[in-house]
């Protein structure tokens, strides 16, 4: 069974791990690159790395970064007056350095991502949404800032007034992305932040069109009891004017998805909303077992 | 008292620490950059860093690198098939990254070195011999290799047939180097490897001339009982055809130095050799106290 998942960071990565564990699933994960940034000259792809580490069972204790990592390099940066608010682990840094060097040699982001997946022994096909530069920009009261400034430096405390996905209008899907979607028996949108993690992917016109035309697209809501499990999804959607709860997620995905899975704690929202069917499942994935359970459940819908 | 020391890595750094501790000494250390290299896109200046760390009492347990460092980044490089034979510590990496970023912004090596010295709270003036590219190349049986390949990758086990200091012929002394030598009451050549650490400095014609013209240049032999304390100085000098022991050091420095200090274990060599006065002192510097003792001793000669 060919499955494509569109994914942001931690939530999408956990679902990917569940899907990857299913024998009959041939999985391709298409990952958001809108959060990518250059820190200290290094090409940082936070979501790609979170998905790769999670699939390799090497993710950090909070879901991002590397397991068993130290932050000595990062601590030491302060001595030289360098910005170290982005937590760059010592082991994690090797991956960032590898990517940066390979890209400096002319490799594309998708080529390097494939090399990383092979280095980690992954069987899942891991693809960036695009090899072109797409950068999520966030409008807050003080003006437009980078995603990293909003999310890391300012700890996503600001009210988000607007979003743009700089470069998405001229970006092409990475090689293999459209083919994977077209060939897929089912396309999943992981339980990621709709405006911050999924929109930067589907802001690429050809990807959005491929989803619109696909017969079976199923999204998992990132909300549990109407609130984001982690991160600012509910607050961002509210300040951007989306309806609260499930209706907001439906509103973000309308026209692209056929079925939306919400958590059992949001069971009051089932049925058809604005032309999208809404069903429930237990969407919490505290461990790999839960990820596998949810993945199986989704394959049965 | 204005003092200039020409220095390679560990031995020269230990003498510098002793000199820096003397109240009446205004010290400038001019450091070899022939071992500099680019690893993973980072500008590595092994001797500059050893001297800076040693002056800041932050040097690693073997004299090079950082105290209390870990090597997680370096270990992890292997996962991606990257060369990790050069031991790059996690904390040490922050200094390398800082230098690399500042140089990418257009700062010269001497500017960055000054910034590092200030970040470390050093009062000593620390200068690279040159801001230009000088690279020591080593001829071994298999042909010419980089210093790093000879020293790190091949663990200085090869017989050295020839040496060249690529770029030294067109390199200019870094700003302040000639002025410091001209103004110095005494110029010291630290107990560093004559062909591998000191020659790449004095291969820059203007530095050699400044030394030749200086009235008081004193060198400390790196040999103890005719052998190098660490590193391959004695073997390299032998295979390059220098006379053994003190005579070899005299031969390397003839024309530039007025007085050579050899270790008390080489007391059989005192007197005048080929026009250079040879005297003895206890040149071992296992700790800071010993460094200060030797520094005081040298200031009295």
Structure description:
Two copies of one chain form a homodimer. With 301 residues, the first copy, chain A, is an alpha/beta fold. Chain A has one domain: CofD-like domains (Rossmann fold), CATH 3.40.50. Chain A is 38% helix and 21% strand. An eight-stranded mixed beta sheet of chain A has the order 5-2-1-9-10-13-15-14, sandwiched between helices. A three-stranded antiparallel beta sheet of chain A has the order 7-6-8. In chain A, strand 1 (2-7), helix 1 and strand 2 (26-31) form a beta-alpha-beta unit. In chain A, helix 1 runs parallel beside helix 2 and helix 7 packs parallel to helix 9. The A-B interface holds A 40-41, 69-70, 72-77, 79-82, 89-91, 93-95, 97-98, 100-101, 104, 115-116, 119-120 and B 40-41, 69-70, 72-77, 79-82, 89-91, 93-95, 97-98, 100-101, 104, 115-116, 119-120.
Overall mean pLDDT of chain A stands at 96
Q: Could you give me the name of the CATH homologous superfamily of chain A?
A: CofD-like domains
- In spatial order, strands of the major sheet of chain A run 5-2-1-9-10-13-15-14
The outline of chain A comes out as: globular
Structural class of chain A: alpha/beta
Write down the secondary-structure element order of chain A: EHEEEHHHHEEEHEHEHHEEEHHEEEH
Instruction: State the helix count of chain A.
Output: 12
Could you give a short account of the major beta sheet of chain A? 8 strands, mixed
CATH class of chain A: Alpha Beta
Strand content of chain A: 15-25%
Q: Which spans of chain A have pLDDT < 50 for at least 5 consecutive residues?
A: none
Termini separation of chain A: 13 Å
> How helix-rich are the residues of chain A, as a percent range?
25-40%
Number of domains of chain A: 1
Which architecture of chain A would the CATH scheme give at its second level?
3-Layer(aba) Sandwich
Can you count the beta strands of chain A? 15
What gyration radius of chain A follows from the Cα positions, in whole Å? 18 Å
- Largest interface chains and counts: A-B, 29 and 29 residues
Per the CATH scheme, the topology name of chain A is Rossmann fold
């Amino acid at each position: 069974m060919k499955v494509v998942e569109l994914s942001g960071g931690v939530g999408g990565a956990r679902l990917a791990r569940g899907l990857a564990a299913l024998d009959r699933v041939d999985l391709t994960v298409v990952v958001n690159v809108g959060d990518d940034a250059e820190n200290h000259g290094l090409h940082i792809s936070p979501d790609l790395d979170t998905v790769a580490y999670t699939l390799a069972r090497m993710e950090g204790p909070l879901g991002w970064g590397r397991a068993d990592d130290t932050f000595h390099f990062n601590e030491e940066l302060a001595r030289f007056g360098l910005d170290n608010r982005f937590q760059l682990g010592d082991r994690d840094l090797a991956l960032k350095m590898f990517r940066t060097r390979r890209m400096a040699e002319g490799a594309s982001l998708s080529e390097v991502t494939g090399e990383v997946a092979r280095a980690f022994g992954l069987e899942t096909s891991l693809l960036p949404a695009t090899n072109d530069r797409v950068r999520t920009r966030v409008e807050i009261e003080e003006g437009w800032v980078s995603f990293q400034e909003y999310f890391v430096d300012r700890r996503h405390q600001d009210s988000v007034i607007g979003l743009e996905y700089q470069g998405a209008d001229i970006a092409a899907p990475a090689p293999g992305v459209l083919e994977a979607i077209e060939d897929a028996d089912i396309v999943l949108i992981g339980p990621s932040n709709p405006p911050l993690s999924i929109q930067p992917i589907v802001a690429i016109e050809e990807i959005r069109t491929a989803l619109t035309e696909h017969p079976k697209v199923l999204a998992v809501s990132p909300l549990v009891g109407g609130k984001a499990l982690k991160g600012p999804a509910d607050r961002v959607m509210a300040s951007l004017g989306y309806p609260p709860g499930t209706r907001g997620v439906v509103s973000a995905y309308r026209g692209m998805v056929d079925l939306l899975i919400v958590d059992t704690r949001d069971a009051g929202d089932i049925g058809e909303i604005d032309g999208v069917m809404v069903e429930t499942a237990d969407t919490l994935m505290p461990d790999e077992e839960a990820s596998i359970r949810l993945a199986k459940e989704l394959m049965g819908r």
